[in-house]
Amino acid sequence: MTKQKEQKLDTLEQIKRLLILALVHQGVQGKDVAAVLGVDPAVVSRMVPTRQIKKK
Predict the structure, then answer these.
(1) pLDDT tens-place string over residues 28-44
(2) pLDDT reading at 15 higher than 60
(3) DSSP annotation of 48
(4) How far apart are CA 9 and CA 31, in angstroms?
(5) What is the pLDDT of residue 55?
(6) Which conformational region is residue 27 in: left (phi greater than 0), alpha (psi within -120 to 50 degrees), or beta?
(7) Average pLDDT, stretch 7-20?
(8) Can you tell me whether residue 39 is helix, strand or coil?
(9) Which of 46, 56, 1 is nearest to 25 (CA)?
(10) Domain boundaries, the chain
(11) How far, in Å, are 14, 24, 45, 48, 55 from residue 51 at the CA level?
């Protein structure tokens, strides 16, 4: 894979993480985000610290 493609994939991953953070901050549960993404809730849990976000 070329460096440019890797950079684009990294940017997309960062955007996805920001969107997940925004959803969790708005009160959407991690398990619901995981269901929409089609991944295991543990994946979302590892990506974002949902407990820390909810405390603020």
Answers:
(1) 988 999 899 888 999 88
(2) yes
(3) S
(4) 24
(5) 59
(6) left
(7) 92
(8) coil
(9) 56
(10) 27-56
(11) 20, 9, 9, 9, 6
